[in-house]
Every structure is written in C-alpha cells, then in structure tokens.
Amino acid sequence: MFYEPKDGHGLPHNPFNAIVTPRPIGWISSRGADGVDNLAPYSFFNAVAYVPPQVMFASTGTKPDRNGTKDSLSNIRETGVFCVNIVSYALRDAMNASSATLPSGVDEFAHAGLEKAECATIACARVAAAPASLECRLTQILPLEGETNFAVFGEVTGVHMRDDCLRDGIFDVTRFQPLARLGYRDYAVITQLMTLSRPDD
C-alpha cells in the first residue's frame, strides 16, 4: 500500500512508529526549578555526535498543567540540564510505570519505585540501577513542524556505567539486555549480537 500522511493511512493504528524500528529509549530524568524530580521515557532518542558527545530526544506531546509541553521539556528549559538513563530489560516495568501521565508535582522515581542517585556534573537525579546514564547540559531546543514538537539537544558531560556491564574493557549490552521501542505497544530486547567488519577495516 501507499499513503500520504496528510490524507491518513486508513489502518486501525498509525504504522509510522512500527516502520521506524527499533528505536533506543531515552529515559530522561530532569529536575525542575522547584526541586521536584521527573522521569519519563522517550523513544524519539539517539546519539548524534562523538566529539563532543551529544544526544537528542524529541518531545511530541503536551500536558494540561505544563502550558503546551511536558514536564521534561519544561524542567530542562528552567535548569538547562538533564540525564539520559539507559533502560535494561530488568527495568522494563519501572520504565513503563514512569510513562504514566501524572501531575507535574509528582516524582516518577517514587511512583515507579526506583532508587535515585545524584549526578556528578549536573544538578539532577539519575536512575541508580540503570546500566548507564549520560549527564547532559542543554545546547539547544529546536522547534519542529507541529504545534507541540520539539527536539532537545545536549552535550554529555558525565558518563556512568555499571561495573557489571563491562567485560574486557567493552560495554557489553548482553550483560543488561537493552530495551528498544517498536510500534504500537510493542518492545524488543537485545539478547544476541553479530559483528560486521567495514570494507575499509
């Protein structure tokens, strides 16, 4: 089939997210100017540069108590920092719990039953049990087409990795099995790898 998004797809559910898969999950922690911590998963997330290391995530919705945006974006605008926590298979239920639409004053760490740890280079909490966390300073917020779509870019200023996820100097994803977002309500978990050498290696 072929469809133009402006005309609709005619299917029971939008297939766009199912086509662009798998997507890494940026479990974004932030802290508002009022000191309240927030935690929410974003599947429009990725690394975008090596030197300096940079990441981005996109916020594509709104909450009635946040004036046209979400808690994460509102907090980051206030403080200029955020942390990306990597989601392991073991943390899947806590990640899902943190995706609930809650009032802006509610701490999702507590709601999801997660232990916090303080970041080292920024004033922000991180998920203590995450296999890795990336502390970030905001570099820019880019408005995208659409009323509530924004891309948030940050420079990574600190990197946490759990020692049990390192093997022979390699960050081994099979040790924690990262979760990836698919379409609809579907997820995938990475349990095995394959290696391909580049032609110019």
- In CATH, the homologous superfamily goes by the name Electron Transport, Fmn-binding Protein, Chain A
Question: What oligomerization state is this entry in?
Answer: single chain
Strand order of the largest sheet: 3-2-6-9-10-5-4
Q: What overall form do the CA principal axes indicate?
A: globular
**Number of spatially distinct domains:** 1
Number of beta strands: 14
**Low-confidence spans:** none
Termini gap: 40 Å
Q: Give the strand content.
A: 35-45%
**Any idea what the radius of gyration is?**
17 Å
How would you describe this structure to a colleague?
The protein is mostly beta strands and 201 residues long. It has a single domain, classed as Roll (Pnp Oxidase, Chain A). It has four helices and 14 strands. It has helices at 16-19, 71-79, 92-97, 108-112; strands at residues 23-24, 26-31, 37-42, 45-49, 54-59, 81-86, 116-118, 125-127, 132-143, 150-161, 166-167, 170-171, 179-181, 187-189. The strands form four sheets. The protein has a seven-stranded antiparallel beta sheet, with helices on one face. Strands 1-13-14 form a three-stranded antiparallel beta sheet, with no helix packed on it. Strands 7-8 form a two-stranded antiparallel sheet. It is globular. This is NADH-FMN oxidoreductase RutF, flavin reductase (DIM6/NTAB) family.
